[in-house]
Amino acid sequence: MRQAALLLWLLAGCARSPLPEVAETPVPTQQRALFWAQLATTATAPEPFPEALFYYGDTHFHSGFSGDNPHDQEPLQAYRSACERTPQLALRYGPRLGGFFLFLSDHITYIKTRADMDESRFQIMRRQADDPSVDRSGPGFTFTAFAGAELTGLGRAGHPEWDDKFGHLNLFLTDSVADFVENDVSSNWGGTQAMDKFSANPEHLGQFNHPGYGNEPRTGDDADHLYPYSPARDRVFRLIEVNDDRPAHWETGIAQYNVCLRQGYHVSPVVGTDIHNTKSGLTGQARTVVVMPSTLGLTLWERRAMLVHYLRLGRVFATESPTVEITWSLNGYPMGSIMQRPQQPSSLQLSVSCNNSHVARVELVGGIDSQMPAAKIDQESQCTAILYRWEPQRADFSSVQQLANKDLDKCAYVYLKVTLASGQRAVTAPIYLESEPVK
Question: Domains, the chain, ranges and CATH?
Answer without folding.
Answer: 45-322 (3.20.20.140)
